[in-house]
Amino acid sequence: MSTQRFKQLPTGLERDAFVSHFGAAYEHSPWIAETVFETGLAPRHDRIAIMHEAMIAAVEAAPRERQLALLRAHPDLAGRLAVGALTAHSKTEQAGAGLDECTGEEFKRFSQFNDAYKAKFGFPFIMAVKDRTRAEILTAFERRLGNDAASEFRTALDEVHKIALFRLREL
């Protein structure tokens, strides 16, 4: 079992400090940390896994429209990196996967896949890219374009939860 899982989190925070600290775990969606705090789901323990479970519960209990807004808050992969429209977390994650070093052909494929994916599903392609290569991401992109809307919505939410776990581990 990873020792990261047992990394200590700050506990006993007031609402604003709690939301400030945990609000960035989900892209442009501090409402998740607010929900965790306000509903009493905030863990009384100092474990990342417990916080992550509470945040997942908040997302999963949210109406579909709110979940869709969460998905739409994510940037295109390799799409806006050059113009600086990414959060610090997204920029670091995408750069870690080499998406800031795409060849012209790779960038073109990402752009085509991004456009096709958003046209089909109504939200950007989301994948936890930590420890992934550009080739792996492009392969997943192409494969997931064949999914039906319901399964891709579920897959995208699952990927968002993975991203949040990585971010919680970095806090």
Tags for this model:
171 residues, mainly alpha, 8 helices, 0% strand, globular
Q: Describe the biggest sheet?
A: none
Order of helices and strands: HHHHHHHH
**Relative helix content:** 55-70%
For the terminal residues, how far apart are their CA atoms? 19 Å
Instruction: Give the strand tally.
Output: 0
In short:
The protein has 171 residues and is mainly α. 58% of the residues lie in helices and 0% in strands.
Description:
There is one protein chain. By secondary structure, the protein is an all-alpha fold. The protein is built from eight helices and no strands. It has helices at residues 15-22, 31-38, 48-61, 64-72, 88-96, 104-121, 134-144, 149-170. Helix 1 packs across helix 2 (31-38), helix 2 packs across helix 3 (48-61) and helix 3 runs antiparallel to helix 8 (149-170). The longest helix has 22 residues, at 149-170.
Q: How would the blueprint of this fold be written?
A:
Blueprint: H1 15-22, H2 31-38, H3 48-61, H4 64-72, H5 88-96, H6 104-121, H7 134-144, H8 149-170
